[in-house]
TrEMBL record:
<protein>
    <submittedName>
        <fullName>NAD(P)-dependent oxidoreductase</fullName>
    </submittedName>
</protein>
<dbReference type="InterPro" id="IPR036291">
    <property type="entry name" value="NAD(P)-bd_dom_sf"/>
</dbReference>
<dbReference type="Pfam" id="PF01370">
    <property type="entry name" value="Epimerase"/>
</dbReference>
<dbReference type="InterPro" id="IPR001509">
    <property type="entry name" value="Epimerase_deHydtase"/>
</dbReference>
<keyword id="KW-0520">NAD</keyword>
<comment type="similarity">
    <text>Belongs to the NAD(P)-dependent epimerase/dehydratase family.</text>
</comment>
<keyword id="KW-0560">Oxidoreductase</keyword>
<feature type="domain" description="NAD-dependent epimerase/dehydratase">
    <location>
        <begin position="7"/>
        <end position="168"/>
    </location>
</feature>
Length: 268
């Protein structure tokens, strides 16, 4: 069913951008896809546009005549502050400001569990907790969530901020047994976030129905999200393939895993 005339996906050349390019193909009459990277050939219902999110004029053009935005674009993991600043912080500001100027009323923001990565894994937290970023990357996602809150409170632009856990074809380590989200569940979550009647400002966790979890995802019911997959089917395989970790290692102690354990990215 076509719910929109035109939806924009930023960062469409990335791993999750490619997942949504296929998974959201039927949600709008036209999908506008932007990235700094090569996007290949356009399907019949696609518009492809090269866009540097750090360039406001480029973002203004990308957001013209769209009804909703799925904002995935930016540096996807830890990097230098300068790269994080331009791609994730300036880039996200430009997306929200361009949305305001062009009358876009809803944005789905790809946040990250690294915005709260320094909570202890013995704590089950909901989305109302204070930010505790574990990296410059996590800091940029905390900024993006606060930006979304500001643009809702001041200008009425609705946002669903998805704190993505570990979205891969299957879990790649023991931590991901708690943080994993399948591609199908991710597509469902984004789709429900787009079509829900009202979302206001909502923060939810990108996770499947895993028996082990760090996060209370009750707020996902606001959009009608019902995960169909679980990391539990991979548990025996993962335990057999990996050694028992040191329970006091920082990568095990904190929600953010290796991001919390790593030093400052720019140190030699």
């Amino acid at each position: 069913m076509k719910h929109f005339k035109r939806v924009l996906i930023t960062g469409a050349a990335g791993a999750l951008g490619k997942v949504l390019r296929a998974g959201l193909a039927d949600i709008a009459e036209t999908l506008r896809l932007t990235d700094r990277m090569e996007l290949g050939s356009a399907a019949a219902n696609e518009e492809l546009q090269v866009c540097d999110l750090a360039d406001l004029e480029s973002v203004l053009a990308a957001t013209k005549d769209v009804e909703a935005i799925v904002h995935l674009g930016g540096v996807a993991r830890e990097n230098t502050f300068n790269n994080i600043l331009n791609s994730n912080i300036v880039g996200s500001y430009n997306v929200y400001e361009a949305a305001r100027k062009n009358g876009v009323k809803r944005i789905i923001f790809a946040s990250s569990n690294h915005a709260i990565g320094f909570y202890d894994r013995t704590e089950t937290i909901d989305s109302n907790v204070m930010h505790r970023p574990d990296s410059l990357y996590g800091l940029s996602k905390a900024f993006g969530e606060d930006l979304a809150r500001y643009y809702f409170d001041k200008f009425g632009i609705e946002s669903v901020c998805i704190r993505i856990g570990s979205c891969f074809p299957e879990p790649m380590d023991r931590r991901m047994l708690a943080t994993w989200q399948s591609y199908d569940d991710f597509v469902q979550m984004v789709s429900k976030s787009l079509i829900a009647a009202r979302v206001g400002f909502t923060v939810i966790y990108g996770m499947s129905d895993n028996c082990e979890s760090f996060w209370d995802n009750t707020k996902a019911s606001v959009i009608g999200y019902r995960p169909k997959d679980t990391a539990d089917v991979f548990r025996e395989k993962m335990f057999a393939a990996t050694p028992t970790p040191d329970p006091f290692a920082p990568a095990i102690v904190y929600h953010g895993g290796g991001f919390a354990a790593d030093g400052h990215f720019e140190d030699q």
